């Protein structure tokens, strides 16, 4: 018997839970970069906390919290270029906030208004996918189109550990491998798909290693280490942009909140497990690291927190003062042109 | 004018649109070197190259799902699914994404793609190669469903489908692929989607049909004064043409090869009940397949609406 090929699954961590860096893998980043990471995480977390409060107050509907996953989301989004396309799942507020998607629009969306997913011109963010994992082949297709058109861009797609079980994952990654599409597959492995743990999604040791079978590289990164996520996504997108094909990045993180505001995670996981992960959440280590460098003070954090809260307050105000949607929109955006039936229905209903 | 069959007419339409618009690409299983299982894409690889006529992995969900992304980014993918029954693997991509991306994004994104697939009974193939589920797709807002019945409209409708800003399911009657020829202009031309064609004028019965069944209905109409309407597009369909014809004839027979239960004939019948009730002289009659799974070859002839059945329907409405 001979060996045809062997695979290795690498793991990347740059800053550990104690805020200590591994200089051998630290990318060339400066104070301003770390402030940007820190501030983006704080802003995303502020957005998220307010969304949870608004839901409890009945001001928005069911919401999927990103608490604990902010480094995976913001680190990856900040590593991509403005012209790259993003295909998010429904748990990606951090990605959208990091990309500068108008927060008031996100609040509108979660309050049940489709206009919130009408990405502003030039902001290449597809509406978040609600059916799990089904957005994966879209990113493959868009990346394939970029390649066919000779555009040096990347399509990045976000999905969870649950999403990696879908056929869409297989077909999307398989196509991307075959066509060498400039695609970055970002698995947000937050350990839980509602009540089902990661160990029940796949018998594989990692999700990252699945890339090997599609003929491209997969890597697992510490998803609570914003630098590791940033570095892995930067390298993968640079590689894709220069014709090197796709990469699967498994961000190993944790969903600290319930699945959504309609869920109660205490039914299926222990408080001790959650506490253990709380100690590993992304802001703690970033704070420690920046403090050691002399880039963090309590005053700095307090001042930015205040600024983030003011920003989010203003966005909520804007969201809530925005006019009600026009029922005619339901019909008007079904096709480019209204059908005769739709025109009749509009008239009959007085819209 | 040259006479072509449907396979040749579709091939010509694809070639001409690819010539005209560099964003048009053909993707699917065996579409490149093999020219497709029905040879519809034959010769396109040689003409347009491997970047525009692309064999994909064997994965219908992947083909349709990737087409969504290709189209959203600005390509015009024309995806071939080898048989209608295999589109079921891609239903979620069509129903949950392709059909609603324009609505979900309130116009920020769209998905101008075409899924071509042969449908229908009559060629005695293996299981799931003879489906006719047009009503399933016609129920989904955001999709368009087009079914040609002859080489001339196959070319003109496909050109319109490729140029359309929204996703189109283009169902090709496999039984008719090579069995009928008609004159097809060499130059590119389009037939508007959503418009019916009057196949035969008449004054006593309105017959609504499409695809393969149109020809059965026409054959059965001998001896009757029937106006035969070829719907051409199932969604959105030409309601005005149907209603106006029934207002003239006072009788309606719908013929389709899918089962009657929730079939598209029910929609046509309901429309007429709603808009032309006062003009009806007779009950609306549907001639359809029985409420059963599409059978294999040996029972095909029992399943498919036959000339006699259609004639009986005509006789029935003429009793009033």
* Rg of chain B computed from alpha carbons, rounded to a whole number of angstroms: 19 Å
Q: Measure the end-to-end span of chain B.
A: 44 Å
Highest CATH level, the class of chain A: Alpha Beta
- Most extensive protein-chain contact, per-chain counts: A-B, 47 and 44 residues
| CATH domain class of the largest domain in chain B | Alpha Beta
**Rounded average pLDDT of chain A:** 98
Lateral arrangement of strands in the main beta sheet of chain A: 1-7-8-4-3-2
Helix content of chain A: 40-55%
Work out the helix count of chain A.
Answer: 13
Counting structural domains of chain A, the number is 1
- Annotation, overall tally of beta strands of chain A: 8
Q: Going by CATH, what is the homologous superfamily of the largest domain in chain B?
A: Thiamin diphosphate (ThDP)-binding fold, Pyr/PP domains
**What is the 3D shape of chain A?**
globular
Q: In angstroms, what is the radius of gyration of chain A?
A: 21 Å
Task: Briefly note the structural class of the backbone of chain B.
Answer: alpha/beta
What's the main sheet of chain B like? 7 strands, mixed
What portion of residues of chain A belong to β-strands?
A: 5-15%
Q: How many domains is the backbone of chain B divided into?
A: 2
- Could you name the CATH topology of chain A? Rossmann fold
Regions with little confidence, pLDDT below 50 for 5+ residues of chain B: none
The main β sheet of chain A shows up as: 6 strands, parallel
Keywords, please?
heterodimer, A: 351 residues, alpha/beta, Rossmann fold, 6-stranded parallel sheet, two-stranded antiparallel ribbon, 13 helices, B: 320 residues, 2 domains, 5-stranded mixed sheet, 12 helices
Could you give a short description of this structure?
The complex is a heterodimer of chains A (351) and B (320). With 351 residues, chain A is an alpha/beta fold.
